[in-house]
Amino acid sequence: MKFKVAWIGKTKEPAIRMLTDEYLKRLGRFSDVEAVTLKDESALLKLCSRDARGRYTLVLLDARGKQLTSEEFASWLRGHLEGSSSPLLFAVGPADGLSDEARHTATFLVSLGKMTIAHELARVVLLEQLYRAFTIMKGHPYHSGH
Question: CA 9, CA 142: separation in Å to the nearest integer?
Fold first, then answer.
């Protein structure tokens, strides 16, 4: 499966870049993943427009989204992989959040929890959870070590 993880805005912190690169490398063992830095929300919406080639299923990180356990997230991801030919686009918005238009464009809204997390850190948590989901699906021991 090929999918994208996108975020709005350049990364300022070297530690975030390092962790992002590490989890992208780990994910590459299980899937073809592409990281995309976008200038703004309109660039994100353009990627998901009906006119776009290979239209993506948009999954947004949003505080109002569904909270899932790691196992539930892995199950949702497996279900998408088995039941859809549409590539996934996971997106993390800017520091001030995303618009209602973006939320309505999304197929699925996921929350990382009730606490507010800095958007750059949320990206790392998302990448780690994607990696964890793949390890759960493949029976890899990473998840069992909690």
Answer: 31
- Residue 140's domain comprises 2-145
Helices in 28-118 by DSSP H: which ranges? 41-47, 70-83, 100-105
Tokens 């994208």 -> residue: 4
Residue entry with tokens 């009730």: 114
pTM of whole model > 0.90? yes
Cα gap 17→14, rounded to integer Å:
5
pLDDT, tens digit only, all 146 positions of the chain: 789 999 998 888 999 999 999 999 999 999 999 999 999 999 999 888 765 555 788 999 999 999 999 999 999 999 998 988 888 999 999 888 899 999 999 999 999 999 989 989 999 999 999 999 999 999 988 887 65
CATH code of 44's domain: 3.40.1280.10
Sign of CA dihedral 53, 55, 59, 62: positive
Domain count, the chain: 1
